[in-house]
Amino acid sequence: MDARYACHSPEHVIARRQFLGSLAALGAGTMVGGLGAFAAPAVADQLKSDQKRIVVFNMAGGLSQLESWDPKPGAATGGPFRAIPTSVPGIQISELLPETAKQMHHLCLVRGVNTSEDDHGKGAYLMFHGRRENPAAEYPQIGAAAAKALAPADSPLPGYVLITPGGAGGRGNDSAYLGPKYASVQLGNGKPPQNTERPQNVSETSEAARQNFRRHINDEFLSRRRTAITEAFTYSFEQAEQLMRQRDVFDVSKEPAKDTDRYGKHDFGRHCLLARRLLEKGITCVQLTHTNYDTHNENFNFHIEQLGEFDRSFASFVADLADRGMLDSTLIVVLSEFGRTPGINQHLGRDHWSKSWSICMGGCRIPRGHAYGKTNDDGTAVVDGQVDHGALFHTYFEAMGVDSTGSFVVDGRKMPIADPAASAVSELLT
Fold it and tell me: 285 and 273 in one domain?
């Protein structure tokens, strides 16, 4: 794997003397377990300022492109909503996204997506793995792969956080051969992970003694029986201890009340604010879920409600990343498993449609204020700039400075980061 930004670009370089000097100043005792050094503010802040990140908004169920990124007002398939101007002359989106329209100069629309898969599970697999399902192999999701490619190896924080209603801090099963170290930590409701607060009846001194004893026993065991599994267990314990020390990172209540009001006091607003907080604190990949867009019935009423909630929170998120200078280092992806049919069914709904739909991107090397790809007048087919899941997956990693044609080395085997049969979309990279 070649992470170009990490190896060659001048802004990523950490002076060797500065880095080693910081470690020496910490003292040998803090190095036990392999994570303590990176809790030092000087080193941690340097790493956070240099690393690339990604945030994925999963519009689960199948967001309608016609009610969002590619409206067709006046067409028989267009539905009742208008197209409105955005901050980029010539680019229009649905009137259901007025606040997002003001942020379009930071974003890029991809309007020619064709994945040819209308099943929810299979469509989601394509978009999150960049490959078709294969009974002979399981592949890591984009968040796990990004954590492996981009997160500092000894970061005390998880590389991949999944924010979803009801998430309580457990580990996901989405990292495949990369191992549990890169699996998602699942959060929800704007609260820190469960079981990360030291019991009041256990003093700091007692806790430190317990952890030192655990490390001593682990080191004795690992000196004789070191395997990938034992390494994973050891890492999990060390990371859990660091999470206990840094649980405030995950506490959205630490954010100012004015930001909570601006993002919205509903779950999705809190989750977007938490996502911003996590990215600022050094988390590599954050994924949020906004559901459920499977609108076979009452498509238009449902999109009024759901996109009204999404629009304000998402626009605030994009504006904040731009104001904080984070867009150059943070890739934004708004995706779904497919789009909705141009045809409107008898229940005033739209069904599954994967032949011509849209996603939204922004940040890193993605061109800003740009629309790529085009569908025909009624939205039934892509007529220019067609892309699929494999090309998009490559593009995400290239946008973050990772050579998407490279490989992860797992137990001595090279595992391609992205589908070798696909390649990045050069028009979507600057």
Answer: yes
